[in-house]
């Protein structure tokens, strides 16, 4: 439903009114859904990478503070 709304929005933006009962539009919707899932997974992996970088920086900071206290 969300992907269909995005597809309708995309067709509206480009000014190309493609009827949804055409098999071409179904393939387009499928590729758009796959692209949406890929972008969501990419965003999630980038957040995970950012979290790991922040975590590593925190560990390094903790080690430096421990060495300073010694």
Task: List the keywords.
disordered N terminus, 70 residues, mainly alpha, 2 helices
Oligomeric organization of the protein chains: single chain
Distance between the termini: 60 Å
What is the number of domains? 1
Radius of gyration: 23 Å
Low-confidence spans: pLDDT under 50, at least 5 residues? 1-7, 11-15
What is the typical, i.e. mean, pLDDT?
71
Cα shape: rod-shaped
Strand content: under 5%
Number of strands: 0
Describe the protein.
The chain has one domain (2-69). It has two helices and no strands. The chain has helices at 2-14, 23-69. The chain has 70 residues and is mostly helical.
Can you give me a brief rundown of this structure?
The protein has about 70 residues and is mainly α. The protein contains two helices and no strands. The radius of gyration is 23 Å and the shape is rod-shaped.
